[in-house]
Write a structure and sequence with these properties.
Elements (H helix, E strand, L loop, with lengths): L6 E9 L2 E6 L9 H4 L1 H8 L14 E3 L4 E2 L27 E7 L1 E11 L5 E10 L7 E4 L14 H9 L6 E2 L16 E5 L6 H17 L5 E6 L7 E3 L6 E3 L4 H27 L4 E6 L2 H10 L6 E5 L44 E5 L4 H11 L8 E7 L4 E6 L12 H7 L18 E4 L21 H4 L2 H15 L10
Parallel strand pairs: 8-11, 10-11, 10-14, 14-15, 15-16, 16-19
Antiparallel strand pairs: 1-4, 1-6, 2-3, 2-5, 6-7, 8-9, 12-13, 17-18
Helix pairs in contact: 5-6, 5-8
Length: 491
C-alpha cells in the first residue's frame, strides 16, 4: 500500500524533544558505513553529481505535531526526489537517520494514514535527547568550578595559581550525571587534556572523545577531567612558517601547575572512581595531560591502565636506558633518569600501568625539545650553579640566590623551569619496559590517512580529525590499550 501511494507514513513525538529525519544513503542496508568510510560519508552529506543529493536534506522535522513523509515525487529531478517510495530498499524497508534538534524525553510514534482516511497511531519507541555535554560527566580542577585558565607568570603569580588548585575536583554546571541504574557498563575511561586549552577546548576535546568512543562501540562511563592550564596566543616567528607561543614561559609555568593538579585533585578523583568501580578505571591523557596523569599515578592513584597519548614528558623519566640526545651541551645535571630521593627514573614505578601511543614524527614534540635546550629558564630567573658534568651534580637556583632549590620539596619547580630533559619526549619514541606501546605513525592501515604524520595538526589528530580517518585510533585505544571489546564491529 505504501509503494502504490495508498498509505501515507509519518512520525510524531509523544513527550518532549524534537528530531530531524534524513533518508539513509545506504538505502539497501542502512549501515553505519557513513561513520567509518569517507566515500560513504560524502554520499550522505555532500554527494557527487552521480548520486542522489536528497540524503543531506532533512526530510521532516518531528515534534509533538504530525509530520508526514512526502508520498509523491517532488517533480524537480530524480536526484532530489524525497518521496518515501523512492527511498525504500528493494525489499520495501525504509532506513532513516535521526538528528537531535531539541532536548527532551518521550516516544517516537509511527503514524499511518490510508488515502482519504484517518490517522492511526502505530508502534512507538522511547527516546531521550540530550546535548552531548550532558551524556557524560565533566569534572574540573579549576578553582572556579568551571573550565578556566591559570594566570601564570612571575613567582607570585605562580604561587597564587598553585594555591588556588582545589584538593578535589568539582562537577561542572553543564555536566551530565550517570544514573547508578542506567544502561552504561561499569568500564570507566577518564580523559585529561593538555596545554594551552582554552575553556571551550577543554569541553570540546572531551565531547569529541566521548562521541568517538561511543561511535566505535564503547558502552561504559566516560569522564572528562579538565584542569587550569595556562594559555597564550600564538604568532609567527620571523622567517618561520609555523606559529609559536607569544609567551614562551607559559609552557613551563603550565607544566608546574600540571604536577600539582596530578598529585592533588586528579589523584583524588581517580581513587574516588576506583572505589566505585574497582579495577575498571582507565585513564587517557594527551600531551601535557601526561604530566598530570603520571604525577597522579606516582602519588598513588589506582587505575587499570593509563594510555599515554603523545605525552610531552622526558622519556628518561620512565626509562633511563633511552638514547640521550647529542645535539646539546648540557648545563644541568640529569635528574629525570636519576631522581635524587629514590634513584632511577622518577616515573619508573608506574611503567606497568602505561600503554604508550607514540609518534616519532610529532611536530609539537619536536618543538618540545627546543624548550628543553633553553633550560634553565634564565628569562624567569632560573640557573644552575657549580654544574659538574663528570659527577652529575649542580645546584638549581631561582633568582641567583642560595640556598638552592631542593628535591623533593621543589621537584615540580625544578622540572618545569630548570632541569634539562636529555632524551626525546616519551610520546615521540617507543620505550620498552611498559605495559604496551603503539606506533601512531606506522601502526594503522598501511598507506592510509589514519597514520599520524609530522603535520602540526596531527599532534591532536585523534581529536581534530573525522571519525572516518581516525576510527582506527579509537578502536586501538579500547582493544589494545584498555582490553575492552567494543560492542560495534565496523560495517
Amino acid at each position: 500500500m505504501i509503494e502504490d501511494g495508498e498509505m501515507e507514513v509519518g512520525l510524531k513525538m509523544r513527550g518532549g524533544g524534537s528530531i530531524g529525519v534524513h533518508y539513509a544513503a545506504d538505502k539497501e542496508a542502512g549501515s553505519e558505513r557513513y561513520l567509518f568510510e569517507q566515500q560513504e560519508a560524502e554520499k550522505q552529506c555532500n554527494p557527487p553529481t552521480s548520486t542522489p543529493d536528497r540524503y543531506k536534506t532533512r526530510v521532516i522535522s518531528v515534534n509533538n505535531q504530525e509530520s508526514w513523509f512526502p508520498a509523491e515525487d517532488s517533480g524537480a529531478n530524480s536526484r532530489s526526489d524525497q518521496s518515501l517510495k523512492a527511498n525504500l530498499s528493494s525489499e520495501g524497508i525504509l532506513y532513516l537517520i535521526f538528528e537531535g534538534i531539541t532536548e527532551g524525553e518521550g516516544e517516537i510514534v509511527l503514524l499511518l494514514r490510508p488515502k482519504n482516511g484517518s490517522t492511526v497511531e502505530g508502534p512507538s519507541v522511547p527516546i531521550k535527547l540530550l546535548p552531548v555535554a550532558k551524556m557524560f560527566e565533566h569534572w574540573t580542577a579549576s578553582p572556579t568550578g568551571e573550565p578556566s585558565n591559570s594566570v601564570v607568570g612571575d613567582r607570585d603569580a605562580m604561587q597564587a595559581a598553585i594555591d588556588a588548585i582545589p584538593a578535589n575536583p568539582s562537577k561542572t554546571l553543564d555536566s551530565g550525571v550517570y544514573d547508578p541504574n542506567g544502561p552504561e557498563e561499569d568500564d570507566v575511561i577518564v580523559f585529561v587534556h593538555g596545554w594551552r586549552m582554552n575553556p571551550w577546548d577543554q569541553v570540546s576535546f572531551g565531547e569529541t572523545s566521548f562521541k568517538r568512543l561511543w561511535q566505535t562501540g564503547f558502552k561504559g562511563k566516560f569522564f572528562n577531567f579538565s584542569w587550569p592550564t595556562g594559555y597564550t596566543d600564538k604568532g609567527n616567528l620571523p622567517g618561520d612558517e609555523w606559529d609559536f607561543p607569544l609567551d614562551f614561559d607559559n609552557y613551563a609555568d603550565s607544566e608546574e601547575v600540571a604536577y600539582h593538579v596530578g598529585a592533588g585533585p586528579l589523584k583524588a578523583f581517580l581513587n574516588h572512581l576506583n572505589s566505585q568501580y574497582p579495577g575498571k578505571v582507565r585513564l587517557m591523557a594527551h600531551s601535557m595531560g601526561g604530566i598530570v596523569s603520571s604525577e597522579a599515578l606516582r602519588a598513588g592513584a589506582q587505575v587499570h591502565t593509563y594510555a599515554a597519548c603523545q605525552t610531552a614528558m622526558v622519556g628518561h623519566a620512565y626509562n633511563e636506558n633511552l638514547a640521550p640526545r647529542t645535539d646539546v651541551a648540557w648545563e644541568t645535571p640529569e635528574r629525570y633518569a636519576d631522581y635524587p630521593p629514590q634513584g632511577g627514573p622518577i616515573y619508573g614505578g608506574i611503567n606497568g600501568k602505561i600503554f604508550n601511543f607514540y609518534n616519532n614524527l610529532d611536530f609539537a614534540l619536536d618543538a618540545w625539545q627546543t624548550g628543553q635546550k633553553w633550560k634553565p629558564n634564565d628569562s624567569e630567573g632560573y640557573s644552575c650553579h657549580a654544574f659538574d658534568a663528570a659527577n652529575n651534580d649542580g645546584n638549581f637556583l631561582y633568582g641567583g640566590d642560595y640556598p638552592p632549590l631542593q628535591f623533593p620539596r621543589d621537584t615540580y619547580e625544578i622540572f618545569a623551569h630548570a632541569a634539562e630533559g636529555r632524551s626525546l619526549a616519551i610520546g615521540a619514541e617507543g620505550a620498552g619496559g611498559m605495559k604496551g606501546k603503539f606506533d601512531l605513525a606506522n601502526g594503522f592501515t598501511p598507506g592510509s590517512d589514519s597514520n599520524f604524520t609530522a603535520d602540526p595538526a596531527d599532534h591532536s589528530a585523534q581529536f581534530r580529525g573525522t571519525l572516518m580517518i581516525r576510527w582506527e585510533f579509537w578502536r586501538a585505544l579500547q582493544e589494545k590499550a584498555f582490553s575492552i571489546t567494543p560492542s560495534k564491529v565496523r560495517p
